[in-house]
Write a structure and sequence with these properties.
105 residues
Length: 105
């Protein structure tokens, strides 16, 4: 029973920390989209290159953050991975939202 409680605490902690990492992608995307960075815009023909570039860069950061959380919680790795995986759902929602804002009408 005590181990389950600790696992839920680790899951919630990793979820919350990962959401802060994901939240950092929003201002980065706005900055990149507003500045029309050439290498990002050249990724696609329809103007959504900043979305793909931001998603790719933040995917790298999320994988590095997962490694840090696995190192931080060595006895609760399953709980850490669960919290990290749960945060991918809002991240996917943010990616869809950014894509919908970037698509020219």
């Amino acid at each position: 029973m005590h181990g389950d409680e600790q696992g839920m605490r680790v899951t919630a902690s990793v979820f919350g920390r990962t959401m802060w990492v994901i939240a950092g992608a929003v201002p980065f995307w706005y900055m990149a989209h507003g500045a029309e960075v050439a290498w990002m815009e050249n990724l696609t023909d329809d103007g959504t290159g900043t979305v793909y570039a931001t998603a790719g860069l933040w995917a790298i950061f999320l994988v590095l953050f997962l490694g840090a959380m696995l190192w931080r919680f060595p006895r609760a790795r399953t709980a850490a991975v669960a919290g990290w995986a749960l945060s991918l759902l809002p991240a996917a929602g943010l990616a869809v939202w950014a894509y919908s804002l970037a698509v020219p009408y």
